[in-house]
Request: fold
Amino acid sequence: MSQFHHLTVEAIERQTADAVAITFALPPGAAEIWRFTPGQHLTLRARVDGEDLRRCYSISSAPEDNRLQIGVRAVPGGRFSQHLHRHLHPGDTLDVMPPQGQFGYRPRPGHQGDYLALAAGSGITPLLAIISSTLQQEPDSRFTLVYANRHTQSAMFRQTLADLKDRFLQRLQLFWLFSQESSDSPLLSGHIDAGYLAQLHALIGLNHFQQAFICGPTAMMDNAQSALGQAGIAAQNIHREQFDAGHQHPLPIRTSRDQRCDVEILHDGRRQKIALQPQDRSILDAALRQGIDLPFACKGGVCATCKCRLKSGDVTMEVNYSLEQDQLNAGYILSCQAWPKGDGVVLDFDV
Reply:
C-alpha cells in the first residue's frame, strides 16, 4: 500500500542550466520506509496552479550514500518540473511516496560481473545509482557506461561520475558521447544508435557483458535493445527504464461504453463501489472522479504507481510498460490502463 509522506528538502544542487539534484532529509527512524533498490523511483505530489499534479523521478543516489536524492530536468512545457525549478527551495516540504519500481539491480556481495549501461540525457539518474552501488558492493565487478548528451554542459552529474571514476579507476569505464561537439574519435560523438553500438562492439565486444541497463528516449532504447540482442546479449539480461509513454493512445472504442459498469475497489481497508461512465478513460479515472484517492502518477502505463491486483472479474489493458510477466500471471494490473470487460471486477490496492 502506497501513501504520501512529507519530506523536507535538504539541498538543491545545480547540475546543468536546466537540471538540478534534489536531496531529501529523512525523518529519524524512517530508514526502513525509504529503503530502495538501485534503479527505483520516487513519486512526488504538489499543487501547481490549484491542481494536484504527480510525477515520478528516479533516485540517483546509491543506498550506500545514506541519502535520498533525485535528478530533475526542467522539461519545456512541463508544469511539474518547471514548478520545482522555479519555486522549490531548501527547507520546503514535498509529498513523496516511498520508493517503487521494477527497474533496477540489487548488487550481490561476492559476485563478479561485467555490466554495461547506456544512458541519454536525464536517463543517467537511475543508472548512476545502479553503477555506484554495484561497484561498492561487488569489489570484483566492472561497469562500462556510455553517456550521451548534446554537449558537455548539458550532461547531468558530471562531477559525481568523475568522482566515481577516480574512486574505481580500474573498474569503471566511461564513454562520454556528444552529438553537438566534434571529436577525433567516432566513439565520442554522435548518438547511441545501431551504428555506434556496432563500432563499440568491434572495439570492446558487447557480447561479454552479463547484464545491460538502458535509459533514455524510447527510440534510443529500442535501437539499443535490438543491437545488444544482435550482439549476443540474452533478452532477459537487457533491462530498460521507460520515462514516458511515448505515443498517446486515443480513447479506446469499447462495446460496453453505453452500459453502466460497476467495479469494487479495496483500498485502505475499505471496500467501495464505483460506476464507470462512457467519458472515463480507465478504472483509475472513474475512481478519482468519484472521490477515491488511489495511488497514481504518470497515467501512461509506465511507472506502476497505480498497480493493483485483480481479485475477480476480467479487464483489458491498453498498454503496459512496467509489469513483468510473472506479475501479470499473479493477477496484477495497471488501473490507469484497465477497463472492465463486464461487471464483477474487484481490485485490491492493499497488496
User: Anything to note?
Assistant: Confidence is low (pLDDT under 50) at residues 247-251, 253-257. The CA atoms of residues 316 and 339 lie 5 Å apart. Residues 124-137 form the longest helix (14 residues).
